[in-house]
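Narrative of activities, Objective 1.

The group set out to show that a structural description can be obtained from nothing but a protein's sequence at a throughput compatible with the screening campaign. Below is one input-output pair from the validation batch, recorded exactly as produced.
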Amino acid sequence: MIVLYSIPDPNVQSISDIQDTINSILTQSIPPSQIIALGDAFNGADPSIQFLSTNKMDYAAAVNKVVQQSDDPFILLIDNRTSPLRLSTSAIDILTLTMKHNPEAAMIYADYNLKNDDGIQEIHLLHHHAGRVRDNQDFGRVLCIRKSAYIKCGGMDESIQYNPLYDLRLKLSEQGELVRIANKYGGSLYTVKAPKEAANVFDYLMEGKDSQLEAEEICTEHLKRIGAYLAPGEYYQQRPNPQHNPELKASVIIPVNERPEFIGTALESCFRQTVQDIEIIAVINGGGNDPTIPEIKRYMPGGDKYNENVPRVRMIVVDINNIGFCLNTGVRVARGEFYVQLDSDDRLKPKAVEKIMSHFKSNPDIGMVIGSYDVWELQENGSLEQKAEIPTVIHDEWTEENGRNNLLRVGGAGAPRSIAIQVIKDIGYFGMNDDPYTRNYAEDYEMVLRISERYRIGRIYDAIYDVIRHSGGTDHNIDQETIDRNDEAKDHTRLNAIRRRQALNHSS
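Output recorded for this entry:
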């Protein structure tokens, strides 16, 4: 096995950290046949290490040069460019044996330890499957690659500036299996020294546009190669006529569980709509004792906040906390032609329904309309403050030509979502935690994927919705276990979508 690693800038990592990485390579229980470092040598380097200067070539070109010149069947790519890294003494031994144990493997990756001021945390990665096409999945910093697969897929694309490893990983997955070595306890192959970062679902908004466009192209080309790409306009059909004889334009459906402090604000945002030909269906899923019930009753006939001149509020109480079930329950009794999303702790802006209806009217191929939103935060004194550092979330990564393909890479499509009621029924309703890994998560993402395969998606790039962040929400500072569970859910829906799209293309 040949080991390929980076010599980082000493101004970023200390000499001792760099030396620790080198020592962990030199003291392997089974020494590598060759060690090549990408970067310029520094005083004290071991003479057994070959150095490849990268002054006149980029990272991808340097890796390609080393792989092409090597006779070894396996390449160990150690990416320690941004953080110090130390191999466990038996790392090369187990990686070599795992490659031999998995002759169809194109790449091996492994769980690792993360060391910071809080101590050592074991990082458990996710097993690869064909649905793992998002660009932010963690495959770790140490990759063992079969040289034959690397050469066959074309190696690193030297024209890619920001995401060469993402591109390489997708191409390798087309050549063979990506196998994970899991850690139950004490089984990590290496340790990364890096500060712990808090998770935030809005992090992607801060990423550079050029990097995102490059990642989109990488993902799109992968989908083309595996037969899952949908060409612009292909397979679109006209929106079906409603079969339930709608009496109203829209039904705003609100699933809610123990949110008495927010539900009033959500309802009142519906009352202020410029289109009043709507209804509000609140589906409480906390059973008869849910404290949201008396709050909603205040807006119904006999309540102290009831107003006969605003849209009617209907209430349905169920005792199963299942968001998809709540949405489907509302859809079944809806008197509107279109469903409009509203989470119980968010708000519709006054022209939301008006703009949504205008988009549906503009094109009979549109089965779903998705808007844009502003992010607000609940302060300790009870006031709401718009987050100045987060611009209006417009999801401009969605384009008419490629949005439904790029959706497989990114984590969401935007809000609020509005769907023709008949489309929901024809397509088989929302998922109800009946897919692997779903736990009141990704039922809406899965619906967008399915609808986008058959109908055009209308987009509104003006803010028509307010997302309210608060301590009881789930959109920021979530733990790794929750992140992994959510990623499992969405990646499984991506896997199903890829299979559906491959079948569509195969049958056409």
